[in-house]
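quick one before i forget lol
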Amino acid sequence: MVNPVWLLLPWALVALSAGVKIWRLTSPWRQRGMASSDQTDMNAARQTLERIWEQDQQRR
């Protein structure tokens, strides 16, 4: 009879390889340092939403 632990080995290998793949795919994003870019994007999104809100308020 097969030990049940051996059945988990392929799943562990799949999980490990998926983790390595995700780590490699996200490495440029992590190296770029998204802190300043996130703040800029958030400010731009906020300004867009405020403009839309003001236009909506003027229509009413």
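fyi The longest helix spans residues 34-59.
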